[in-house]
Amino acid sequence: MTRRAPYAFKASAERELARLPRHARVDFWRAVDLVLESPTRPRPGLDIRQIRGTKSIWRLRFGVYRALYQWDGRTVRFVLIEHRHRVYGRLDELGL
After folding, report:
1. Does residue 70 contact residue 96 with C-beta atoms inside 8 Å?
2. Measured between alpha carbons, how far is 40 from 31 in angstroms, rounded to an integer?
3. N or C: which terminal CB in the chain sees fewer CB atoms within 10 Å?
4. Top-level CATH class of 7-94?
């Protein structure tokens, strides 16, 4: 069995996830299963990239939505979940 990284949500990211349409939440959880196996390794079916200018912020693409997460080497922490048109404009809000 593959060892999975533990995960957590920033409270605002958890609220953002709850507001997504059902199909987007399903897509999110499918992608998260793959992320937790290896949080920094892109592969077929998993579109992730490190955000330029950051050391530990990664972007997960699922449909027209994006989830930003921090990877500290042990835990995946989801900090922002938003539509692709709005997510990058909110990076400054994170204060990371």
Report:
1. yes
2. 13
3. N
4. alpha beta
Amino acid identity of residue 20, one-letter, is L
0.70 exceeded by pTM:
yes
Q: How many CA atoms does the CB half-sphere of 12 hold within 13 Å?
A: 10
Domain boundaries, the chain: 7-94
Count of CA atoms in the C-beta half-sphere (13 A) of 38:
8
Please give the Cα distance from 20 to 23 (Å, whole number).
8
Rg (CA), the chain: 12
DSSP string of the chain, one letter each residue: ------EEE-HHHHHHHHHS-HHHHHHHHHHHHHHHH-TT--BTTBEEEEPTT-SSEEEEEETTEEEEEEE-SS-EEEEEEEEHHHHGGGHHHH--
Phi and psi at residue 24, to the nearest 5°? -70, -40
